[in-house]
Amino acid sequence: xxxxxxxxxxxxxxxxxxxxxxxxxxxxxxxxxxxxxxxxxxxxxxxxxxxxxxxxxxxxxxxxxxxxxxxxxxxxxxx
Length: 79
Prior knowledge:
single chain, mainly beta, N-terminal domain of TfIIb, 4 strands, elongated, nucleic acid binding
């Protein structure tokens, strides 16, 4: 991914704020997506994509996200 030309604007209070590290990924393989045979709660389709993402503190388990390939509905599951 080419990141040249990206502009970041900072305010004068930037040093007082806690900053988070952001990792940019450029392909679905890096997101660890996989097809799962669980029913979509909206349309009942069994073909969904699932992936995990750390949304809370690092000592908590990751959140599991799903997206239906038929209707596009996205939902999450806390483990």
